[in-house]
Amino acid sequence: MVKASKVNGQERKRQRSTEKEKRRNLDINRAFESLQNQLPSCVPKGNRLPKIKTLRLAIKYIEHLSSILNGDHIIPSSMENPRPLLIEDFASVALREIQIRNTYTSRIAEVEDQKDVMYSDDSPLSDFYQLSAGFGNVFYY
Fold it and tell me: Of 40, 47, 27, 49, whose CA–CA distance to 93 is shortest?
């Protein structure tokens, strides 16, 4: 009799723990979905990005917005004059991030490539835009 009630108590405790974990996971997934919905429309709506990509894109988007507020400029190609950085410039950065595979080896190679590139500024954003598809250096005025 005592054993049966002890087993039932442990079973109920395990069920409560399982339900609590399911709710926690659901809350986290909703938060990631909300975060992804705050990113620009260049991020595919309806497609759920992996959580790590969502976090990386959010970080890069915040850095991009900070650069815009700081009045940073960009040279889109060697034939053009510097122009102010725009929100629309984030599209190619987002596309590049979405296309990167989530592997440690590709991330290590990316970091190694960044070490070999000369930057116009010590800012992490100069690294960020130097490696962005179709972008030249970011210059700060």
Answer: 40
Exposed, middle or buried, 54 (CB in 10 Å: 0-12/13-18/19+)?
Answer: buried
Evaluate whether 110 touches 56 at the Cβ level (below 8 Å).
no
The CA distance from 78 to 33, in Å, is 39
pLDDT at 140: 39
φ, ψ (nearest 5 deg) of residue 100: -70, 135
Residue whose entry in the numeric block shows the structure tokens 């069920």: 15
pTM of the complete model: 0.62
19 sits in the region (left: phi over 0; alpha: psi -120 to 50; else beta) called alpha
- Tell me the domain boundaries of the chain: 1-38, 49-139
